[in-house]
Amino acid sequence: MPDPVVLAKLRETLRTLETGSFRRRPVLPMGIGAVDEALADKGLRLDALHEIAGASADLADDCAATLFMAGIAARAWGPVLWVVRRRDLFAPGLAQSGLAHKRLLYAEASDDAELLAVMEEGLRHRGLGAVVGEAKRADMTATRRLQLAAEGGRTIALLMRRHGRTTSDPFRLPSAAVTRWRVGTAPSTPLPVAGVGRARWSLELARQRGGDGANWIVEACDETGRCALPAALADRKAATGRADRRAA
User: Fold this and answer.
1) How large is the angle between the packed helices 112-125 and 140-150, nearest 10 degrees?
2) DSSP bridge pairs for 52
3) CB–CB of 209/40 below 8 Å?
């Protein structure tokens, strides 16, 4: 009979080799205790589709939503495929949210249908940490295909729903996404002198499968891709013994 200890060590070695020298988690924590507690899965499922939209069509909200996605992708485990319709991504801005240009693979699609097809292929590849796309139109059938392509893997799917000319709500149609988020700008961190402090966002969990919605004011992603609660709120939680401003 094979030695159970030897077999266990062999299985562990194989898992290490298959996952690039570290274990891939089934869930990616948001890094904020209050947010992770509100999520049904205590984080973002890696084998799932998540949708993000700006709180409005304003360019500032659009940028906030883009950087929010970049921060999530930055904390995924490997290369990131970002599929675009137009060449408006600013690599230094993504890097400030933790997503280095060396990890990025860009693909340009001619329309939303092609963009969604490229995303699906990227998810089925299983060799990417995240697949990101930006579309105005994605019906239930398209989002269900993305969700099915993501299931069983460890490649998180992030779809940004851009505002169209005829609607103010990109989430007006149903979707197979596990979570849907709205991100908007908020007044920045106050400084003791004249100037602009760290950016803040209004973060709304508009919908999630198996849980309720919620909203928070958070500080924007730092160079590690992590958001944080504003210092004053985090300090109040610390005083009551419930502080959890950051998480790995």
Assistant:
1) 20
2) 160, 181
3) yes
43-70 pLDDT, tens digit each: 999 999 999 999 999 999 999 999 999 9
What is each CA distance from 46 to 28, 36, 131, 181, in whole angstroms? Answer: 6, 14, 11, 16
| Amino acid (one-letter) located at 186 | A
> Length of the chain in residues, anyone?
248
Average predicted confidence (pLDDT) for the chain: 87
Maximum Cα–Cα distance across the chain: 74
Beta strands in 12-117 (DSSP E): 27-28, 44-45, 49-54, 80-84, 104-108
**DSSP secondary structure letter of residue 220:** P
Q: How far apart are the first and last CA of the chain?
A: 41
pLDDT tens-digit map of 83-110: 999 888 999 999 999 999 999 999 999 9
pLDDT at residue 248 is higher than 80 = no
pLDDT of amino acid 240: 46
